[in-house]
User: What shape does this take?
Amino acid sequence: MNRFPTFLAAIALTLIAAASPARAQHQGHEGHEGHGQPAPAAAPAASADATASSQDWIAAEVRRVDAAQQKLTLKHGEIRHLDMPGMTMPFKLAPGVLSAAQLTAMKAGDKVEVRIESRDGAPTIIELRPAPAPN
Assistant: This one.
């Protein structure tokens, strides 16, 4: 039985039920050579389109699910606000991003979009949603 549609519905409901989006925390990304510089401060809303922030959705593909450690290994695109090129690496999940059932339903190959910020020096997924269907 394919559980991905159930996963998509659960993610959508989780996002709708969220009272407010997570706020950006602009911190440096330590632990990756060349990425230790602090991110620039967010620009005023008028020029938000030109400024990278943790509010940007990043396209990614799930490569591994580690439910016990609350981590997803993602092959992701560039994360501009953390000055990080596209690569494959594990990310911690912020508390409440996915329920245990949602995390268990995820599998390698699932296409998602994520919002990531640096928390305690580690890149952390603060929001996750299914990727839009290709046209």
Observations:
- The chain has two helices and five strands.
- Residues 12-50 have pLDDT under 50 and may be disordered.
